[in-house]
Amino acid sequence: MEYASGGELFERICKAGRFSEDEGNSVTMKVSTEMIEQMHKEAEETWVPELVRVMKETSEPFVNVIYDCDPLEQVVWDNVVLVGDAAHPTTPHGLRSTNMSILDAAVLGQCINKCTSLENLGLALKEYETIRLPVTSRQVLHSRRLGRIKQGLDRDDPEPFNPLEASMVDCQVLQQKSMPFFMGAPTSDDQCGFCERVELYEV
Ligand SMILES: Cc1cc2nc3c(=O)[nH]c(=O)nc-3n(C[C@H](O)[C@H](O)[C@H](O)COP(=O)(O)OP(=O)(O)OC[C@H]3O[C@@H](n4cnc5c(N)ncnc54)[C@H](O)[C@@H]3O)c2cc1C
């Protein structure tokens, strides 16, 4: 499985001429012999021998492309609202996608529920955006970072993760509980102000 942010892998594959654009648009793709060889080479540089052997003995490897997207600046336009993956496609490395989508729907429901008239609908949708956008944006970026570390793609990043030199604190970022708002995210029912809520729930 390959992970690339914002369509990076798709670009790479199409430009390298390994797939036509139509083939590249498929989420799951068969891979050429050349690409398999490249994967095995990269695996040897990255993974323990046992795992490399599993990869080499897999008779029909495939690439499952994972896209995420930079956090959006807004998820509400007039009466149009984005929720779930449409609002924040994220990598699976944070194990959070469905939870994020469900919470979007719950908070949106709460905000709309408080609407006393249709004239207030815009305010309700803005409240939804104000509550959810800072939370999901941080979760998307955290998940991206985890993905880059876990797949060895962070080597050229400004601060790559080096397991041989990493401190205990550096390693803790890889734990699932380090996901921002893991212990709970703000909802519309919280009593305190929004800014206080974000601080309260920050991990
Ligand atoms: C292979 C895979 C494994 C995953 N595993 C996990 C996991 O283990 N844990 C986890 O938390 N998350 C996982 N996810 C992510 C999770 O499935 C999504 O985050 C979640 O389903 C998002 O919900 P959603 O309602 O936003 O989008 P979706 O579930 O994608 O629902 C969108 C719906 O809109 C429909 N649709 C699209 N376009 C149109 C249109 N033009 N008109 C009408 N309908 C349309 C689609 O058919 C679909 O039914 C996984 C995703 C994938 C692909």
Automatic annotation (TrEMBL):
A Pfam cross-reference name: FAD_binding_3
Entry-linked InterPro entries: DHP_3-monooxygenase, FAD-bd, FAD/NAD-bd_sf
Residue intervals of the FAD-binding domain: 77-139
GO molecular function: FAD binding
Regions that span the bilayer: none
Entry protein name: FAD-binding domain-containing protein
Species name: Stephania yunnanensis
